[in-house]
Amino acid sequence: MMLAESGGFEDEASEVGRGLGAELLELRGQVKQEQLEAVRGGLHPETGEFLRPRHGTDSIGEDGSEQRKGRSLYDLTFSAPKSISIQAMVGGDERLIAAYDKAVREALEESESHAATWVRLNGANENRATAGLVVASSRHDTSRELDPRLHTHAVATNLTYDGAEGRWKALQASGLHERRAHLTEVYRNALAREVRGLGYEIEPRRDAKGRDYGFEIRGVSLWIMVASQQVA
Asked: Residue 174, Cβ neighbours under 10 Å: how many?
């Protein structure tokens, strides 16, 4: 799993991730681009009212133009092993897509448990766990080179609900950054469990230095992977 600041939402319609944050905003299933952009700016997706004490991430410059500042989105990217992409899309086993989606959902649920906000009341300077994330996820099945590659961009807004203070605040994402390795393992373990449950055998994948790079389905040979890239 990779975590980085994001430039924006990709698709007109995205699936909103689970979490009390999304539920409080009544964002479920497929949502519109304008709703996502409203939440990105710290606005309620239906009423347009400001949710945070600080009004969004934009300010007005001396010339009247909008000037963006601060962070507004975080992109959590999940990628399937190459052999799973090949077997799902070239081999036609769509069960693997469902298995992949389930593993991503589990990783996002774990990510939400580490959402926090910054507390500064009464001289405090600490993080407090919150109600979770507001996430719009988009799954893709090809790379930029158009070869089979299952991957998901789960974009979290810079917004979380602080139940202790009873208000929306900016997301403190340091906990997510610190736990990237852990969240990656949650995703990989869930995916391995689902893939084995479908009857596949898997084998570990390591780079030239012996570092863990997850796993591949046993029996999907390298030449098939290379050939699929050439055909695509």
From this structure: 12
CA distance 171 to 182: 20
Q: Where are the beta strands (DSSP E) in the chain?
A: 2-5, 13-16, 30-32, 58-60, 66-68, 73-79, 116-119, 126-129, 135-142, 148-157, 160-162, 167-169, 202-206, 212-217
Span of 4-18, 96-110, 208-222 with lowest mean pLDDT: 4-18
118 burial (CB, 10 Å; 0-12 / 13-18 / 19+) is: middle
How far is it, in rounded angstroms, from Cα 76 to Cα 150? 14
Task: Please state the domain extents for the chain.
Answer: 2-231
Q: Which residue type, as a one-letter code, is found at position 216? A: E
Cβ burial of 65 (10 Å; 0-12, 13-18, 19+) is exposed
Q: Helix (H, G, I), strand (E, B), or coil: what is residue 95?
A: helix
- Which residues, in sequence order, are bridge partners of residue 160? 169
Beta bridge partner(s), residue 68 = 58
d(CA 59, CA 226): 49
Q: Which amino acid would we find at residue 215? A: F
Q: Is the pTM of this model over 0.85?
A: no
150-197 pLDDT, tens digit each: 999 888 888 899 988 899 998 998 888 899 999 999 999 999 999 999
Residues 43, 33: Cα–Cα separation, whole Å: 13
Structure tokens at 1: 């799993």
Identify whether the C-beta of residue 1 lies closer than 8 Å to the C-beta of residue 107: yes
Q: What is the pLDDT of residues 87-121, one digit of tens each?
A: 999 999 999 999 999 999 999 999 998 999 988 77
pLDDT digits (tens, 9 = 90+) for 17-28: 556 788 888 887
